[in-house]
Amino acid sequence: MSTDLTESEFAELDELLATTPAPLQPLDASMLDGYLCGVLVQPRLIDIDEWLPNIFDYDGGVLPEEVDQTWLARIRELTERRHTALNRAMVEDGWFDPVVLDLTEPEDAEKSGEDATAVALDTEEDPDQIAARATYEGMSLISRTLMPWVAGFQHAALCFPELSEMDDDAVMTALARLYRHLPAETPEEKEVVATLDREHPLKDLDDAIEEMVVTVADLCDLTQEQRYRVETLRREGPKLGRNDPCHCGSGRKYKQCHGAN
User: Fold this and answer.
1) Model pLDDT for residues 185-233, shown as the tens digit of each residue
2) Distances (CA, A) of 33 to 29, 64, 98, 172, 175
């Protein structure tokens, strides 16, 4: 039985991913953890050769053919072990310990509006970048802490859209509970976040992590039946006996016609 990664192995994996050849933008350890959970709760089983390439670039780029195979093999080994450990924990315990980076409030968090404007004017960011940064800074510390993990989960949902396309209100509600920790861009998204904050407030980071893990475990349960469903071959008509007339209309018995092979 494969074991979960140690603390030093998580750090090693993070460092290995950080050396992914430019211009690719790989996931970090926290995003990777969320991504793996997003893969595991899909309504179909996904093989490692299908999900592994997506960890090396958030925008869908592919590794060059001449990439260091020893480097790649080590990343595959560590990532597959984490994938297996997460799956086992979800199935057996309904719980797992996510890789979440602990953020602390910056000392200069309380900046005046004048200072913030000066910073914006002194940069070369375009309006969209400034708006995105403002949205991020407007999020709670809890959501900013969980955002990388949830962004990794969303990355899996975008790479494999079957989960998001399920016609199941419980699945959609669970996804909303996760995505509340991502920047809300549309009025509809902002309203969903506001509703969740009002009806299901989070006391602190520990409470938020528990809610996140329980939500992923719920998704795992909601999709389990489809994920492990075995499709059976159905015949369109009744089974022919060997002495019955052949279905092709030749007039011969089935065993002497199409059933002869």
Assistant:
1) 888 988 998 999 899 999 999 999 999 999 999 999 999 999 988 554 4
2) 6, 24, 7, 21, 16
99 contacts 30 by C-beta, under 8 angstroms: yes
Strand partners, 253: 245
Long-range Cβ contacts of 144-148 (<8 Å, 24+ apart): 144/103, 145/100, 145/101, 145/102, 145/103, 145/205, 145/208, 146/100, 146/181, 146/208, 146/209, 146/212, 147/181, 147/182, 147/183, 148/28, 148/30, 148/31, 148/34, 148/101
Q: Report the amino acid identity of residue 207.
A: D
Write phi, then psi, for 245 (nearest 5 degrees).
-60, 140
- Polymer length of the chain: 261
Query: What pLDDT, on a 0 to 100 scale, did the predictor assign at position 226?
Result: 92
Tokens of 112: 């005046």
pTM: 0.77
Of all residues in the chain, what percent are helix, strand and coil, respectively (each to 5)?
A: 60, 0, 40
> DSSP class of residue 71?
H
CA distance 10 to 101: 12
Predicted pLDDT at 216: 97
Query: Rounded to an integer, what distance in angstroms lies between the CA atom of residue 171 and that of residue 163?
Result: 8
What residues of the chain score a pLDDT lower than 50?
A: 105-123, 125, 128-134, 232-236
